[in-house]
Amino acid sequence: MEGRHEAPGRLGPATAWFNLLDAPAKHLITFDTSGHRPLFEQPELFHQVMIDTVLAHT
User: Fold this and answer.
1) 32 within 8 A of 4, measured Cβ to Cβ
2) How many Å separate Cα 26 from the centre of its chain?
3) Closest CA relative to residue 39, chosen from 18, 31, 54, 15
4) Alpha-carbon distance 37 to 17, whole Å?
5) I want to staple 34 with a disulfide (CB 3.0 to 4.6 A). Which of 6, 21, 22, 41 is the partner?
6) Residues 18, 26: contact at Cβ < 8 Å?
7) Residue (of 33, 1, 31, 32) closest to 14 by Cα position
8) pTM for this entry
9) How many other C-beta atoms can be found within 10 angstroms of the C-beta atom of residue 37?
10) pLDDT digit string (tens) for 2-43?
11) Per-residue 3-state assignment (H helix, E strand, C coil) for 11-44
């Protein structure tokens, strides 16, 4: 999970790392109005993603 308004110095490496990640399931989820901390900037959406996506795959 990342915020669309993350600092460019962090967003680029995170995206590169995600693309290299070899996993049975992976999802890059972008929060439209968040920066570095979507957990605190969009807590309801973060919680819903955790329930619908993360918990659903465990």
Assistant:
1) yes
2) 10
3) 31
4) 18
5) 41
6) yes
7) 1
8) 0.77
9) 13
10) 999 998 889 889 889 999 999 988 889 999 999 999 999 999
11) HHHHHHHHHHCCCCCCCCCEECCCCCCHHHHCHH
